[in-house]
Design brief:
The protein is an alpha+beta fold and 299 residues long. 36% of the residues lie in helices and 17% in strands. It has one domain (2-39, 52-295): 3-Layer(aba) Sandwich (Peroxisomal Thiolase, Chain A, domain 1). The model has no long low-confidence stretch (mean pLDDT 92).
Amino acid sequence: SVGGSTAIVGASHIASGAFERVLVVAWEKQSESNATWALTVAHPMSTSLVVGAGGYFAPFIRAYIERAGAPGHIGHIVAAKDRRNALRNPYAHLRIPDITPETVAGSPMLWEPIRYLETCPSSDGACAVVLGGETAARAARGAPAWVRGTAMRSEPISFAGRDAVNPRAGRDCAADVYHQAGIANPRREIDVAEVYVPFSWYEPMWLENLGFTDEGEGWKLTEAGATAFDGDTPWNPSGGVLSANPIGASGLIRFAEAAQQVRGAAGEHQIDGARVALGHAYGAGSQFFAMWIVGADRP
């Protein structure tokens, strides 16, 4: 969530009147490192499991599937959808033409139930956003994206009763940003969402965590096509984290893509009529969250 948090800090500088314009930059050069190993504690303090992020999140996904009674093909639908969306986005790093849920289902199992094509790539990349006060917004070329709300929340990675499938920090962060933006029903009032989905199953999980549907119902929205490019709740029309994942910049990219949608500047992956958008980032063990709501109209 580093990039998303950085954007929120920048926005706070604008809101306080301290500055008129703030440049926010986030980047990652994974080709010269590996986030999993860089964050591994050396022996003898811990045992290196060499499992990567997927090995950490797979038990949470299995728990969601059991709790929600979700069929196993839901993740395949998300992976194929987001990768098809990526074909519309010139900034997407991973492109797989003609991908189908069946293609995803036939890829190797890495961490049950996560298959190879249900995982995010690891890539180099960067994102930059200029945040400005109203005077700067009026002077900018093209329509601005007006920030209607920003929020951050975090919680410890482990405590008695922690729900890693549906983290409270995520729910609280979403409730805060919706309150600021005056949103009572996110599914009906948010036109498009760019949500941090590094493994395909996190789409139905975050649909519930972010209040787009009741608990246990997220997979049904995905299966019904609601989150597709032409659905009534399009998620990740850019291709999302499944198609481009320079980790340190991935959160800010979600924020920037949301802004581009309400500016009408998303190109071939523009959602027609998008006026309100959600940008979402999370990090670590599903414990750090940053979100914003941007709109085409001045609040």
